[in-house]
Each structure stands twice: as C-alpha cells, then as structure tokens.
Amino acid sequence: MNKSQIATRVAGRTGLGKPAAADVVDAVFEVIAEALASGEEVRLVGFGVFDVKRRPARTWRNPGTGEWMRIEASGAPIFRAGKSLRGTVKAGSGP
Predict the structure, then answer these.
(1) Residue 92 — pLDDT band, cuts 50, 70, 90?
(2) Whether this model's pTM surpasses 0.85
(3) What are the DSSP calls for the chain, one per residue?
C-alpha cells in the first residue's frame, strides 16, 4: 500500500475529499519526521513507537584496503509495534 492508497482509505472512512485526506496523511508523516529529527519519541498508544536509534562514532577497518576510517555518529529511525497492532496483524495473517 502506498501513500495515495492510504489517503483514499482515510477519505472513505472520514468523509473527507481525497485531496483533503491526502493533505492530512502528508501532515501526519511530516509531523512524525520532524519529531524524530528533533530527537523526540513518537508514541501512538495501541499502534507503536517511532524512535531514533543512536549510533556512536567509531573507527572501522576497510577489509579491502586495510585502511582505518572514522565513521561519524548517526541516527536511524526505528519502529516498535504496539501490542494491539501485533494482535491485529496476527489475527489477520493466514495459515
């Protein structure tokens, strides 16, 4: 499913027009991305938690050249599904 399909389903469930639903979906994704970029955790009770996994700076040896390189500290977004979401997916999955 892509963002357009999500907007179509949101429009059908809320009575909004598809363009308005698409704006809402875009806004929700933007807010989540901005929160993660500023270091906040996004907790949606029953759905899950969006967070950032921090990776410290480190040195790494290139196996091809043997050269040591420094890798800067970084962060990567992660998602942990909530209990309710896990139950819904489990109930809907086939044999």
Answers:
(1) confident
(2) no
(3) --HHHHHHHHHHHH---HHHHHHHHHHHHHHHHHHHHTT--EEETTTEEEEEEEE--EEEE-TTT--EEEE--EEEEEEEE-HHHHHHHHHHS--
